[in-house]
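Batch job 17 of 40 flagged for manual review because the log was empty.
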Amino acid sequence: MGSNAEQRTDTNRKRFKVPSGFDPSVHGEKFLRKIEDRFGAGFRIESFDPGAQELMVVRESAVAEFVDDGESIHVGLPDGTQESQGPKVAKQYEALKPGWRITDFRPYAKPGYATMRQMTEQEVRVRDAIATVLRVARTPWKVQVREDSDGGFALQLPESYSPAAHDQKLQEVAETSAGSPGWFIQIDPKSLRGQIIPGELPTFPTAVSAPLDRSVPGFTDASDTPWYKVPLGTALGVPGEPQGPEFSVDLKAAGHILMQGTPGSGKTVTINAFIWWAVNCGAKLAITDTPDKSVDFMWARDYCMDGGWGCETYPEMVATSQLVYDEGKRRAQVLRQKGVANWFEVADKDPSFAPLIYVIDEFTVLTTKKPEPKSLDEDHPKRVAIAMENSYKDLLSVNIQQIILEMRFAGIFVLLATQVGNTNTGITTAMKIGCGNRILMGSRPSDRQRANAFSDADSVPTVPPHITGAEGVSKGVGAGEFEGQHPTIFKGYYATAAQFKASLDAKPSLARTSHPRPTQEEISRALSEDDDLDEDDRAFGAASTNPFGDEGPRRGRPSTSAGMNAARELGLTGAAAANYAGKYDMREAGRDG
């Protein structure tokens, strides 16, 4: 396209009265600055009459030359124009050419010039917003903006741009001044070129189907660890990506997971995906849950290690936790013999050293003690039964804490799930520190819940409003804070319990339990220092009808004293009966004395 040059000389003279004592050589520069503030740049002193105290100033070639090449106009600048005069020059020239904006300003070139280009209102709005972010609002021509055919914008940024300092604010410009939420910005820090790209907000489908037909890395030895990145769902994508990457928890970076969330938030389905992966990889499995809630994991019962289903009674819960802890101690002894400090260093292809996954659900319900009815006598059956139940809870809590704090190095990995995890609900500070992976399920947690769930809640993103408000989409969504990974928003994999079970059942090579529930011998060993219980002892314990279990700490055979007969008449069995009988017999002995 050809150019069109137009030369114009505009002479503008102004006469001013000056105060007595005015000396152009001393006061002239300051006076010219005041004139520029009022009338614009380009004036010079033409003459001074000291008798009349009059100063004549003149501005020539205020618009010296317009060179129109069809897309832009190159404008000559008056001699002596300074960089600091740019905003005033821009205002002057842009007033002369409505719809055109200064896009380049070079007063020190020989000769000095400015470049103007027609800009749409949207281009001007985006340019000015970016210039404000980059702190060049007075000289916005340092930011180049052109609207693309797709509605986005091509950018050229000044050298003051810094990714760390400006990217977050520039993303806000993309979502507000340029477009709407979902638009995003991309910048090459080396070339300083960038784009604002139209897009939609990243979201989730109503369900993320668990990929049950995927290839799963089987466990060979502890040092061969492709299994340890456990996929649990899909991470929320970034603008421009229709779907985010797979979300995984790295058990090598941090061995234990603390998962919190209210009922219905999606804890169970996420735990199911965790269990499915672990069992598929050849891990040993143990589960402790309340009798009612354990139905959620019944599908995995046959894949627990022997005695690893600790869900039916409190003594069985204690026994399962003790079995896990004892296995950790066995491994610790083997590691010492091998001269290695960490299970991940073991290269032996020993199936007994497979990872051991211990899932504990509803921890707070399991370990919160019931208040004793102190208005009842100490030997009242109900008070005795509650005291025994609380003692089981103490044992269970102690075992779980020991496993978390002591056994990660032995290849034991805990997923501890609860509604609220703090010291008031039994989750000690040491346990929280021991769980380097933190997950909070639910799309609308309160600030208090977030502060309680994460070590640095401010660094963990919140679930965006367009997800929390979308029916079905928010189901199964959570946020996570992890060792060695960026905090993220994710949606857990979903499959029915029957689908998870069918997938495992189709693989005959997977290990199955010979007895999921702890045996009477395993229970007694967990609750007593005496391992030599005979068949009568086990038969007595098997007669229990207490829904929370009836095996308490006892030694040898059950008593056949008057106290035990009285306990049986009251319907007491096991530890509750033994406790009642002991107090009964002591009281009767005192009367006889």
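Reviewer: the log was empty due to a logging misconfiguration, but the result itself is present. The chain is about 35% helix and 20% strand. Unflagging and moving on to job 18.
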